[in-house]
Design goal:
It is a single chain. The protein is an all-beta fold. The chain is 0% helix and 32% strand. A hairpin with an 8-residue loop joins strand 4 and strand 5.
């Protein structure tokens, strides 16, 4: 089986340094979604938190030496699936950011931990607690 993704947009930020994780970030930037997907942003509101799935486009090619890694802020090694390293079998990242405003096909956000030029794979609502996620069929 082959799985293929195409980016829906690109991260834009002027930040030269980024925190290692979104939960530590105050960095601002913009999610530029391709114009053909702009109507899909219509119910995203200021103050809302959204989940951004992205591609670690600058991550080195994965090999078995990356199955166990020592994060720079830890004093021991961990299995790759228990940490947020960009060095993964499928270099997909997940960040939760806060929406400032939506204008056309762009979302101004705060809380970035993604590099300028990072390809965006998908955007989803951040659902906390027992809130229900709107389903695709309206149920």
């Amino acid at each position: 089986m082959r799985v293929t993704f195409s980016p829906i947009g690109t991260v834009r930020t002027k930040a030269e340094t980024l925190p290692r994780h979104w939960s530590l970030s105050e960095v601002e930037g913009t999610l530029e979604v391709e114009a053909r997907y702009a109507v899909g942003l219509r119910d995203i509101k200021p103050g809302q938190r959204i989940v951004v799935l992205f591609y670690f486009h600058k991550s080195p090619e994965f090999d078995s030496s990356f199955l166990v890694q020592t994060p720079p802020h830890k004093d021991r090694s961990f299995g790759v699936f228990s940490i947020c390293s960009p060095r993964r079998p499928n270099p997909i990242g997940l960040s939760i950011v806060t929406v400032g405003k939506v204008v056309g096909n762009t979302i101004e956000v705060k809380g970035l931990d993604m590099l300028d030029g990072t390809p965006i794979l998908d955007i989803k609502p951040h659902i906390e607690g027992r809130q229900e996620c709107p389903s695709w069929n309206g149920e």
